[in-house]
């Protein structure tokens, strides 16, 4: 039986949960020790920076690596990893956090509209119809601008899109776009949610010790 399957069957047992947490800590350590562009996050980031990096990596690894490399280039260019100081780690971590805070990365929701001027109406998939969530402020602003643009494209209560050369009626009304606009304005960014979690964890400062090696991997009697 695979370890993950065993964890799932053991359910809420406190000791198994502790082992699960240790398993995750091992995954975090391995990722922070992996080289990206010749640099390892564990060498260049402070505790806060490492937490932001891993959160981004879990969601979109390619962008986490890109932001990390950019942060090192911006704040630690030309410095060997072995000579990185705490001040440089703080600068690189702040740069990484700012990229996350202002990121334009978005997740989109598809929709289905009805083909126009077709004797037999056909439902057509509309990719990336509207913004669903976003990492940072640029993503939110782009989603809001998307709503504004969509609203101006309605004529006679109908908005026509071109999808793959086919004219398709937008399934949303002006009222729905306006409602979505309002929702995006108040929706938290992924950065805001992650920042709140990290602050709470750092303020709590309740670090669980690792399970002793002689017990961590012992077979269950």
Strand and helix layout:
Elements: H1 3-10, H2 14-32, H3 41-44, H4 47-59, H5 61-75, H6 86-101, E1 106-115, E2 123-134, H7 137-152, E3 160-163, E4 166-169, H8 174-186, H9 190-204, H10 213-216
Antiparallel strand pairs: 1-2, 1-4, 3-4
Helix pairs in contact: 4-5, 4-6, 4-9, 5-6, 7-8
Please give a quick description of this structure.
The protein has helices at residues 3-10, 14-32, 41-44, 47-59, 61-75, 86-101, 137-152, 174-186, 190-204, 213-216; strands at residues 106-115, 123-134, 160-163, 166-169. With 221 residues, the chain is an alpha+beta fold.
Summarize the structure in words.
Helix content is 56%, strand content 14%. The protein is elongated and about 70 Å long. The two termini are 16 Å apart. It has two domains: 3-101 and 194-216, no CATH class; 106-187, no CATH class. A hairpin with a 2-residue loop joins strand 3 (160-163) and strand 4. The model is unreliable at 214-221 (pLDDT under 50). Helix 4 runs antiparallel to helix 5 and helix 5 packs across helix 6. It has 221 residues and is of the alpha+beta class. The chain is built from ten helices and four strands. Strands 2-1-4-3 form a four-stranded antiparallel β-sheet. The chain has helices at 3-10, 14-32, 41-44, 47-59, 61-75, 86-101, 137-152, 174-186, 190-204, 213-216; strands spanning 106-115, 123-134, 160-163, 166-169.
């Amino acid at each position: 039986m695979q370890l993950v399957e065993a964890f799932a069957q053991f359910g809420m047992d406190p000791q198994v949960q502790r082992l699960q947490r240790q398993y995750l800590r091992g995954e975090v350590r391995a990722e922070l020790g992996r080289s990206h562009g010749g640099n390892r996050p564990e060498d260049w980031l402070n505790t806060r920076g490492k937490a932001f990096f891993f959160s981004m990596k879990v969601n979109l690894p390619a962008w986490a690596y890109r932001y990390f490399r950019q942060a090192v280039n911006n704040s630690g260019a030309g410095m060997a990893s072995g000579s990185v100081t705490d001040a440089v780690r703080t600068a690189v971590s702040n740069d990484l956090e700012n990229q996350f805070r202002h990121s334009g990365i978005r997740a989109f929701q598809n929709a289905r509209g009805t083909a126009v001027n077709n004797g037999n109406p056909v439902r057509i998939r509309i990719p990336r119809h509207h913004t669903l969530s976003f990492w940072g402020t640029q993503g939110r602003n782009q989603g809001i601008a998307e709503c504004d643009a969509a609203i101006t494209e309605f004529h006679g209560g109908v908005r026509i899109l071109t999808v793959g050369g086919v004219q398709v009626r937008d399934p949303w009304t002006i009222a729905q776009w306006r409602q979505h606009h309002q929702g995006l304005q108040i929706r938290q960014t992924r950065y805001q949610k992650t920042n709140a979690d990290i602050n709470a964890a750092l303020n709590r400062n309740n670090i669980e010790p690792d399970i002793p090696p002689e017990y961590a991997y012992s077979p269950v009697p």
